[in-house]
Structures are given as C-alpha cells and as structure tokens.
Design goal:
Blueprint lengths: L1 E4 L2 E4 L3 H12 L4 E4 L21 E2 L2 E2 L3 H12 L3 E2 L2 E2 L1 H15 L2 E3 L2 E9 L2 E9 L4 E5 L2 E4 L5 H6 L3 E3 L9 E2 L2 E4 L3 H10 L16 E4 L1 H9 L9 E6 L4 E4 L12 H25 L7 E5 L4 E2 L3 E3 L7 H5 L7 E5 L15 H5 L8 E4 L11 E3 L8 H7 L2 H21 L8 H11 L8 H5 L6
Parallel strand pairs: 1-11, 2-3, 2-12, 3-8, 12-24
Antiparallel strand pairs: 4-5, 6-7, 9-10, 10-11, 13-21, 14-20, 15-18, 15-19, 16-17, 17-18, 22-23
Length: 450
C-alpha cells in the first residue's frame, strides 16, 4: 500500500473533473485526478457524446474560462464544427492541458474505501485494474464520478431517480461515416412534415431528427426495435455523424447487472438502426459504422445532497442566486418511455432560449462533509433540475468554479460557502489563457473548423 499526500483529490475525470483539476492546479494546488477508464474525458470522449448542448445566448457564451480555451483549441485543431466536436481530438487536448498544469493523473483506478472523522474526509483508498492499491490523503475531495460513488462510500446523503425512484434512459452513442449530406438536406427541404419543426436543412452542423414515414414503413416490414424517430448530428471531418437514438428504459444505472443489460439492448438497437438507415434513409445508403462508444451514456443516477438542492422550478423561473457561479440556458430534458413517444405537439415544438438561470456554489458542497464537493451530473439537484444542469458545458462550468473556489479556500482558510462569486469569477478570469481566446461568435458561426 502506497500513500499519496495532496491538497485536492478529484475522483472522476469527465469534463467536470478535468475543469476542476485544471482550475485548482493553475491556482497552485497539488491535485490528484483519479479515473476508472484508460483515458480522460468521460462521456465527452469514451461516451462519444457530441455536440455540446446549448451554452450560449445570442453571441454570448454562458460558460467561458477554461471551457472557452478548450473550444479554441478544438477550433484550431480542426476538431469542432460550431458546437459539434471530435472526441479523439478532445482526448489529446485534455491530456495536454492536464500535463501543462501539472495535475497528477492516475488511470484505471477506482475508490474502495473512505476514512472520515465527524464532518471531515481524511483519506480515500483506491485499487487499480491490475490490483495495485494506494491511499490518498488530502485537505479536500471532489466527487465528479457522475454516479456519486465517492460520496456514497463516505456515507453522504444522496438522491436517486425521480419521486418514484425511476431513472432516465441510458443511451449508447455511435458514429457513422460516408454520409451524403446534400441528399439529406434536399430531403429535409422537400418533406418538412417528416421531421421535427426545429430541423433546418441549412444548419451548420446539420442536425436532423425525424424520418417518421420511414420508421412507420420499416416497422411494417419487421423492424421492431426502432424508436419513434431517428436523430443525428454532423461531426467535423468528412461525411460523419454522431447518432443519439438508442434508449434503454427502466433500469437502475448503478446496478452493474442492469447496466450491462442496457448495453446489450442498445447494441441490438444499433444493429437494427444501421440496417434501417441503409435501406430507408436517403443519403445513408453507403454509410458504415465508424465507432461505438466504449461507455454507455448515463443521464442520471445518484446525486449528492448539498447545502442547496437545485430544482426544476429554478430552471423554469430562470432563477439567479447571490452565489450563482454557473450560468446555463438548457431546459428540462427527461428521457423516459413517455417523453420519447412522439406527439403532434412535440413535432411542432421549437425550443426557445430567452434567458439563463444560475447554479449556486452551495449545490456543489456536501451537506454532510465540510471538505467534500461535487461537480457534474451528480451535483445537488432534484430530478428535473438535474435533467437541465447535467449537460457537458454546464458541468464544465461547475468544475472550474469549484476548482477555483477550492484553491481560494485552501489559501485563505475560509469555507467555500463564504467565498463570493465575484472572487471566484475574478480568479477564474485571471488563470484563463486570454492569448488563445477568440470570440465565441466566430466559433459558433463557423461553417467548418478552418
């Protein structure tokens, strides 16, 4: 058993954990980042989840700072098409930024035990996939596992599912290539009623959801494993798309047996979807699978109860907080058997983005432990609030805010709940590389990555 002493230990290197590690390390903390996979990025890389969902209003980015740097790096690497990005390019960018910041990264490792005294976590033990064991001691700990795994081991108060205990659907993302976008655009122009109303044939990147007629025809021919619509988004590169259409319902995402069954279900759906698009969807006749995600996408599982519980009503009312450290505009988005049944009202609805809400720093601080924080989809929230706040840009905003706040707390001796958002935002601005920042509007209006 080896022992590691750090200032901050972060468990989970998804987009929130990475942003927290970068922010805290740039502020001078000794940071250990522990990840269960063999690469960093979580759902944004091994989960193939693209694009970044809505994080801007007009020409203003609601999440800037380190996240803005990463957008610029993707842009300069040819790895972004407006808000659609390439997962492999993002892996390289994440790793390079962690290296430059001096973050200690350990892959292929899981937490096994938490030792605490009263309201303080003292140390966390880990085991690697090869059986190596180590223990990390620190002043502060951050749970960015998505499933609140560290908080559960510590005995923190958790939420899970909705009021009936049901969870959101899981999705196995995949990408396809050799797509003829001109044929697809023409198809959308000619048959507008065959797609959701928000679909625009000239959007960049091309984002299409619908094909209601094709699905109805295919079902009559024996395609019995299709959902009510087919949805894809154009990716950077040559004729590539990201497909977000598989769903596994009514399974517990933290039960390994049920989660494994979800992978089987979604894999079967992918197999039939590929056959469906090649036979019925114009522009996909010669398409082929490029990659299937190594990790299934979990929208919601366990959530840590914090000093504040962010709610769906906070989203609907666009609530602002005195300690609001993350701005967001993405709305409540629940994937269940009921919400995935397409109605005429759903087909004709067009999302409106007129205002933003805020997530307070208190929703990132455990109510049970003074030195346990959280960021990402396991932040303190009710079922509806989590469904809006879980998206990647908002999770990145949580990570960089709590990373900066941790460093300020460490330096000053003040608890995070007493640190003002102006101080957090000011320090985040100070550690952001302004030389590489170009206007968000330039990226968002880009027709390509060049």
């Amino acid at each position: 058993m080896s022992f590691i002493e750090k200032d901050l230990v972060i468990v989970g290197s998804g987009i929130s954990g990475i942003h927290a590690a970068l922010a805290a390390s740039r502020k001078g903390l000794e940071v250990l980042l522990v990840e269960r996979n063999g690469c960093v990025g979580g759902i944004s890389t091994v989960g193939l989840c693209s694009p970044f969902m809505r994080f801007w209003l007009g020409g203003e980015s609601l999440v800037s700072g380190i996240f803005g740097e990463i957008l610029v790096d993707l842009h300069e690497s040819g790895g972004i098409l407006r808000n659609s990005f390439d997962s492999e390019t993002l892996k390289i960018i994440f790793l390079e930024k962690l290296r430059k910041a001096g973050v200690s990264l350990v892959l292929h490792s899981l937490p096994t035990e938490v030792v605490s005294s009263e309201r303080i976590i003292d140390e966390v033990s880990f085991i690697s996939s090869s059986g190596a064991k180590f223990t990390a001691r620190a002043k502060m700990f951050l749970d960015s596992t998505g499933d609140a795994s560290l908080a559960k081991m510590a005995g923190a108060t958790l939420f899970s599912g909705n009021i009936e205990g049901a969870h959101q659907a899981t999705t196995l993302m995949f990408t396809m290539s050799n797509i003829d976008f001109e044929i697809i655009r023409e198809d959308v122009r000619r048959r507008r009623s065959n797609f959701f109303k928000w679909v625009r044939p000239d959007s960049k990147p091309l984002s299409v959801a619908g094909y209601f007629e094709e699905i109805e025809k295919a079902r009559k021919s024996g395609f019995n494993n299709l959902h009510d619509y087919f949805f894809f988004v154009e990716l950077p590169g040559e004729d590539r798309v990201s497909i977000n259409t598989t769903h596994s319902f009514d399974r517990d995402p933290v039960n390994p047996f049920e989660l494994s069954q979800s992978v089987f279900e979604c894999s079967e759906q992918i197999d039939q979807l590929v056959a469906f698009v090649r036979k019925y969807v114009r522009g996909f006749e010669k398409s082929r699978i490029e990659k299937i995600a190594d990790d299934i996408g979990i929208r919601e599982s366990r959530r840590v109860k914090g000093l504040y519980v962010f709610t769906g009503e906070d989203v609907r009312s666009h609530r602002k907080f005195a300690d609001g450290v993350v701005k967001a505009t993405y709305g409540i988005d629940i994937h269940s058997p009921e919400t995935q049944k397409i109605t005429p009202e759903m087909r004709d609805s067009v999302p409106l983005y007129s205002d933003y809400y805020e997530i307070p720093i208190r929703a990132l601080i455990s109510c049970d432990f003074d030195n346990l924080y959280t960021a990402g989809r396991c932040f303190s929230s009710d079922f509806e609030g989590q469904s809006a706040g879980r998206i990647m840009p908002t999770s990145a905003g949580m990570g960089q805010a709590i990373g900066v706040a941790s460093a300020i707390s460490f330096e000053s001796g003040r608890p995070i709940r007493e640190i003002s958002r102006d101080e957090i935002n000011g320090e985040l601005d100070r550690i952001t590389d302004k030389n590489s920042i170009i206007s968000l509007a330039e990226i968002l209006k880009s027709d390509n990555s060049n």
